[in-house]
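Handoff note, outgoing to incoming analyst
You'll be picking up this chain. Sequence as last confirmed:
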Amino acid sequence: MTFDIEKLEQIPIDEVIKALGGDYKRHSHGKQFNMMCCNKAFHQHGDKKPSLTVWVDKNICKCHVCGIKGNPISVAKGMLGDFKEACKWLHETFSIPYANGCTPRPVAPKIVKSTPKPIEYLRFNKTKKFTKVKIGDWIDKYSELSKVQKLKMVYTFIYRFSLSTDRSKLLEYYKGRQIDKNPHLSKIGYLSVEDITLLLNKLSIFPTEDLIEFGIINDAKHKFPLSWKSPKNVGVIPSFSIYTDLIEGMMLRPIDDTNKWFKGKESRLSIPSILKPLPFGFGYKILQNTCDIYITEGHIDALSLPENYCFIASPGVNALEEEQLGLLGGKNIKLVFDQDEAGLKNALGYFEVSFLDQRMTILKSQKDDLEGMKNILESQGVDIKVTEHTGLKDRLLKAGAKSVEVIRWDKDLGKDVNDLLVNGNLSKVFKI
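Most recent structure output, in case you need it:
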């Protein structure tokens, strides 16, 4: 029996995930959607908020929690642990004839027992030198580059162009947030409507199909074909590579009301299926440094910190991949999340408690309160179920961080770091 690899790779990846134990929270149709992961052992609460992304056009997937990813064979191998066993299972489960014409024998549905996949943490190499790259030296060699290298070239071209535009409106926006002296402002670019028109002309040196695949322009079937896909009049917040000055992704922040659909929100320009970028501020310089690293929710809070602070501006409380946390091994970390329930839950971790058809959450820092409640309920014969959710603090420590502190303050001073700055209370929380 000879495996028909080509046909196995054509099995719809979402059907493979479902056969392995995953499911749709609600069935989605489109080029990209999320599913509940099949690797159940790694998801403490059944992956109720689906963490596995499916890219239909590429027929691949990736779970952003457990890391299982790839095409049908790769996913089956990750769950079954063996290439031959994975191919055999796919042939039998989906009744795919073998390459030599043999018909797979019918089998009863198999329950795949998933096991947590060890996290392969990235580690920072202090001996590796930092390289500055001139895009012009690579334009003629573009066709020879890998997909990842091409993406970096195109994104870097856009970012460097955004640094050459008129930044007066951008700086006015940040001044309105009382951010006007931070030296890191010089790293943020700007693209107006007019700038984007000029940029699109300059981007014609790159293949149109790449500009579509990298999320820069709409495809030909779109209502506005081959036009700029993201909001306009935006600040361009870069995600740098670790060992070079190339760009791996960008956050685009509208700075006025012309983008009604994006008002107050940032748009992410990145393709995680090709390359998962690190957040703004996460790079070679701070990893070489011995400074404490402050992780904030977004770049506005990061730029609101005292200007001599080392920071990582995470675009969300769960934006960092587990393997990326290994880069912070040996570092002293300060988590500066919003002082609301969501921010504290994701920083500290929490317990989900269910009893008498009621559900509540308790922060890990309030574990003594949980134990007291459990004792009272159990003494009254009430069944209680407790599910633990690991916060970023514990995940960082597991990845090798030297220390992790969750910084907290009275919410009356401000709900986030920028509020502290605007309200004149920054010095009450941070050393200035």
